[in-house]
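Troubleshooting: if your tokenizer reports a length mismatch, compare your output against this known-good record of 479 residues.
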Amino acid sequence: MAVHLSYRSRAEQRGRTPKFPSYFMKATSSLAPSGSAVERPAGTELLAFEGEIALVIGTRARRVSPEAGWSHVGWVTASNDLGLYDIKYADKGSNVRSKSGDGFTPLGPALLPADAVDPQRLRIRTRVNGEVVQDATTEELLFEFGQIVADLSQQMTLLPGDVILTGTPAGSSVVVPGDVVEVQVDDIASGRTTGPLATTVVQGEAGFAAFGNPPRITDADRVDAYGTAEGAGVESEPTGRDVLTDEVRAKLLSVATATISGALRKRGLNNVAIEGLTATKGTRKVIGVARTLRYVPHREDLFKARGGGYNAQKQAMDSLKPGEILVMEARGEQGSATLGDILAMRSQVLGAEAIITDGAVRDLSAVEDADLPVFHHGAHPAVLGRKHVPWSVDETIACGGTTVQPGDVIVGDSDGILVIPPALVAELADEVVEQERRDSFVLEHVKQGHAIDGLFPMNKDWLAKYHAWVDAGADLGAL
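Known-good structure output:
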């Protein structure tokens, strides 16, 4: 068996964080020892490696608890969950052909006794032609090994010798004939190691025959196989992370929110304002890249299934990074809070730029005291279950009357909150700096008693004076 997603870095790369583990199965004929070769079939190009930690079941497990799951593991070892993305489409999610080719599951070379290692302090490293391309520890796991064993044992009896591949961290990519992939698992505490599991990629002579699905590749397949659009050589729509450089950030922070709003309206973007919210930090301007969290209306059965434990709300706030702004869709509902002081503090400690919710907040005075700008729609002492079910993270949402997508650039203060499409950010930053300079020129002359007519907007004569002022250094004190 194999887990789809279990490392936080890989989930972030894929753009989705699962609440529970999910699985697929691989043929036993795909097993191979260290030192073996794996064929890339003729007519294909997207053979990708995935360095993983493999669990080998030691004792029978049926309906065991997560706390007891690890005790049924006999050994751990290194594995390589090879996959052929050229044929993945035909599997319709099963991974039967794309993941079960002969030699597609190397294991070894040594088994580490499970009772002699710390499952929370294992390290997985993958090298391609001697260069480290994956390096992670099990502290990054979304799901502990005991939970995975327990979850599988709910529906099937796990028997001694059964193997569970536990997912790969970020860094998986495509290999070509001649490449040598080495995967190694180490126990950090004891120093025990599996040693390198080596697999050489060779070119196969046989391809896929006409009586079955032929290989087929889309740009999305390339990105999945290589791990990133850049690695795949595929042009992708820019995100806020790509365009919000220090220089661009400084330009946007230097101008009034109203100036940015005007520039957006000039481009026909009239519905990009998040409206009706109150700022805890007043005129303090924030700028960052949008992460999103969606709440749906409360329903008792859905809240029971998705409202408790490490739910979408906690996952979102626990994964924020510096430069990010969490935007929540709460449907304008004021009858229940969407966050309180503890989650606000967690977001602050992680370096988030701000939190925006079109719902209410709990512990409002404490949230206001925190050094984290929060934009909200009122206060309420109850949280979540009264009105909300935390539903999904990093999907397109609605907030305060507009649409927000993960990766959008958000600029806001007490004058308003704006959503900027990433593709416009760089040119918009240059334009608004120029517009702000023009507005400053006009304002200074209005202060000096000049009439509005001809000055605002500037006619030919005033434009000539403006350009002369810019050429002279644009010093307001010289006006």
